[in-house]
Amino acid sequence: ILDWSWPEDTGGRKDVSFTVLCKRCRQGQRVCEACRSNVRFLPRAAGLQNTTVTVGDLLAHTNYTFEIEAQNGVSQLAPTMRQYAAVTITTNQAAPSPVTVIRKDRTSRNSISLSWLEPERPNGIILDYEVKYYQKQEQETSYTILRSKGCNVTLGGLKADTAYLLQIRARTAAGYGASSRSFEFETSPDSFSISSESSQVVLIAISSSVAIILLTVLLYVVIGRFCGYSKSKQPDEKRLHFGNGHLRLPGIRTYVDPHTYEDPSQAVHEFAKELDASCIAIDKVVGAGEFGEVCSGRLRLPNKKEICVAIKTLKAGYTDKQRRDFLSEASIMGQFDHPNIIRLEGVVTRSKPVMIVTEYMENGSLDSFLKKHDAQFTGIQLVGMLRGIASGMRYLSDMGYVHRDLAARNILVNSNLVCKVSDFGLSRVLEDDPEAAYTTRGGKIPIRWTAPEAISYRKFTSASDAWSYGIVLWEVMSYGERPYWEMSNQDVIKAVDEGYRLPPPMDCPAALYQLMLDCWQKERNNRPKFEQIVSILDKLIRNPGSLKITANTSSRPANLLLDRSSSEVVPSLDTMGDWLDSVRTLPCKEAFSGVSYSSCDTLPKTSAEDLKKVGVTIVGPQKNIVSSIKALESHSKNGPVPV
Ligand code: AMP
Fold this sequence. Notes:
Elements: E1 2-3, E2 17-24, E3 33-34, E4 40-42, E5 52-56, E6 63-71, E7 85-90, E8 102-107, E9 112-116, E10 128-135, E11 144-148, E12 152-155, E13 163-172, E14 175-176, E15 183-186, H1 196-227, E16 237-239, H2 264-271, E17 280-288, E18 293-299, E19 307-313, H3 320-333, E20 344-348, E21 355-359, H4 366-372, H5 379-398, E22 411-413, E23 419-421, H6 428-431, E24 437-438, E25 444-445, H7 452-457, H8 462-477, H9 489-497, E26 500-501, H10 510-519, H11 530-542, E27 562-563, H12 576-585, H13 588-592, H14 609-613, H15 622-635
Antiparallel strand pairs: 1-5, 2-3, 2-6, 4-5, 6-7, 8-9, 9-12, 10-11, 10-13, 11-16, 13-14, 13-15, 17-18, 18-19, 19-21, 20-21, 22-23, 24-25, 26-27
The structure holds adenosine monophosphate.
């Protein structure tokens, strides 16, 4: 969406209009070419009366320059050069198109070597390829996944004389692209043997190769011993370990639970780079974590530019378990690579203090950031932040990782307003969250953010993360307000179970409130997947006009829950005073439709004399209703409310 300001000088005429010219600029080339004709301009590219245009159908990860020229009826007659304002942008990365060309390089009795061409539209920088293969006759019930950074792979440990089916998909920072079609390959038969003349040559070749490999391994071990461990094992091609290397689950799981490692420190070094403490300079303390202070500082690695980092430290006197739990966060974070997930730079485990070093997020956690900037962002900016969080969560759910503690306090914001999901861990996830409370079943859970099935029987899934996402959506749109205000955890559980949901925050676009309600569906399979959430938010960003339709709450108290089953339209009143008047004059049911904590039919008499005096009987946790009315009083523009 391009916006520009009106020209300073309209030439004394009223017939000013604007024309937008689109150019595509390839990296490293000075000359740009005109954009392809299928780039769409809404409402149009020329003769624009307003100072905005939406440009669609652009290519991902591409540089574009837009030139905006103001013209009037005599522009054609002006002898001077065209005058315009120009802006150059790079579109975000997208998932790559499928791999279409795969070639068999070599086959033996138990291995196949393959190579392939990069997808036609990489749509970004290809991070790696996922190769999935299985025996044809087993029909995908058991398959193996390999990851390769390059365009070739050797599948080993195969059965002789057997047909295998294989699919490849590429990944950019935006996620995986679609899989290629299935390609079929066969290993050589058991009886296959090399001819006698060539056997000697082959034997010599094999012995030399074995000798070279042994020498390389020896050298590697020796160098490793003398130079210290500097980087985790990051082979070009990484086999994921699922017991015997085969995955017998439907779906693809690429996140590896560090608990599955007998020795958790092995997991840390598998996924995190060991940093030398001398490369880290600590500047100041920026926060407090469960295990010690969080500091800001700088990391300068040899031959690399210095970068700002956050440094989490493990305080002295820790137990073995605390050290393990502290480092488990790094083992998890180190497996992720996405622009909306906090990036791990490395760990310091071989000297003290033990540290986890991550990218630095200048604006700290999202909840406090929003509170500090109450009502200061445009709808598009808020949706942009929410889109980032959803995209990070889509990546995590694709990886098979369930966060369990998604909340605005666990999102970090950088200086460009990019939001990143943080706070990963195993047992500690909920231990260090001050919001987490013990449930009757013993677990510690952040009640206000957690889906009912996760609270009642610990069913944590990506669908329960989607519920929490709905709460984050509410937190963002209300600039960091506390979900369910001062209600007790028990009252929240009860109210949610009875079907009540948080009302829309002030001026909340109706589409976003609908998305919240969808995330808070009781039936978890009906909640949107993160993929869908991202696409809904993308549509809103493309069509910012849609954000103007609000859920119409400005005239009513924001801190009463809504009955999900109530579809009645909220009465539109201009001031808080009007609302209170209407409460007093309308029959109870009408007055409270859509705004009450409970329906009037089931209102038992409350003993609150204060409320009786205004002729209103309300049920629900009484102290909350009373304090809600008090909150109304203090916010009322019309002075004290006669309670
Ligand atoms: P945590 O233990 O991850 O909840 O971190 C505690 C606090 O430290 C957060 O609430 C942030 O204020 C701050 N913090 C943590 N990580 C970072 C980071 N990468 N950049 C900036 N501040 C951070």
